[in-house]
Design brief:
This protein is of the alpha+beta class. The protein has two domains: 124 residues, Probable inorganic polyphosphate/atp-NAD kinase, domain 1 (Rossmann fold, 3-Layer(aba) Sandwich); 141 residues, Probable inorganic polyphosphate/atp-NAD kinase, domain 2 (Tumour Suppressor Smad4). The chain is built from five helices and 17 strands. The strands form three sheets. A six-stranded antiparallel beta sheet has the order 7-6-17-14-9-10. A six-stranded antiparallel beta sheet has the order 13-12-11-8-15-16, with no helix packed on it. It has a five-stranded parallel beta sheet with strand order 2-1-3-4-5, with helices on both faces.
Length: 283
């Protein structure tokens, strides 16, 4: 591949020194590259219209959050992503700044592998109508929004009642997202190319509530119950921690495996568990 596009988190490379260095290196080796900048805030979107149709790989400069934003907003473009780590841990962005030239050499010499990462999709149903749709690479979470009250909800899988919860919320995670919010909430770590979905309640008010591992073909329904007050605010569903839809009592969030995937270009020969150990040792 020799046709690249860069998406740069402006807060990480405000003078564009690394961005320009990458473009110069690509062009000096017979390739082509252009870029756009985005910000971390939700209102900052990737402008897909600026990305040429012939682009073969998108380099995402930032942290995991920047790559996840790009993956969600470019979900309809079948273009591999690879992340350059300006962040902290960087489970998804495997390339460090001092390895950029070596990485570009491998990409332009077609010495890479593609990993197809599962995504999940959700519909928010209110009064038998879909009021909101979204997709996520890491996770979709349903939670209370700031108030010190538990969220009451029921969970169904393939139409079968599973459990009723009083909790801060619940995380529905992909394998890729298992090392993110799911891990912090006590959920299991899953190999990123596995074909499963993980349900992890957030601070449940019970002694026996654990994560549930499901087939990726499962359909999950989360029904929002009354919180026994007249106030119907302060509940929401969010996608990868950003795109948010406010919820009301009796809303049903239907979550399932998406038809779309994110392609990640892999350069490193480290296994998932070797990478995990390396990243965890930096915490």
């Amino acid at each position: 591949m020799n046709k690249f596009y860069l998406i740069t988190n402006y807060e990480k490379d405000s003078n564009l020194s690394i961005t320009n260095k990458i473009i110069e290196y690509i062009e000096s080796h017979g390739g082509s590259a252009s870029y756009q900048t985005i910000f971390s805030e939700e209102r900052s979107k990737v402008d897909e219209s600026l990305i040429p149709n012939e682009v073969e790989c998108i380099l995402v400069l930032g942290g995991d959050g920047t790559l996840i934003k790009a993956a969600r907003e470019l979900v309809h473009r079948n273009v591999p992503l690879i992340g350059v780590n300006f962040g902290y841990l960087g489970y998804l962005v495997e390339i460090e700044i001092n390895d950029i030239e070596r990485t570009l050499d491998k990409l332009m010499d077609n010495r890479y592998q593609l990993e197809r990462r599962m995504m999940i999709a959700a519909n928010v149903n209110r009064n038998a109508q879909v009021i909101h749709k979204g997709v996520a690479l890491n996770d979709i979470s349903v939670s209370r929004n700031g108030r010190l009250k538990v969220l009451n909800f029921k969970v169904y899988v393939n139409g079968q009642f599973i459990n009723k919860y009083s909790a801060d919320g619940i995380i529905v995670s992909t394998p890729t997202g298992s090392t993110a919010y799911n891990l912090s909430a006590g959920g299991p770590i899953v190999e990123p190319c596995a074909d499963i979905i993980v349900l992890t309640p957030i601070c449940p008010h019970t002694l026996n509530s654990r994560s549930i591992v499901l087939s990726a073909d499962s359909v999950i329904d989360i029904e929002i119950l009354s919180d026994r007050t007249e106030n119907d605010d302060f509940k929401n569903v969010n996608y990868d921690g950003s795109d948010i839809c406010e919820l009301m009592t009796n809303d049903v969030i239907t979550i399932s495996k998406s038809d779309m995937y994110t392609s990640i270009a892999k350069i490193s020969k480290l296994s998932f568990f070797e990478t995990l150990q390396k990243k965890m040792s930096n915490i």
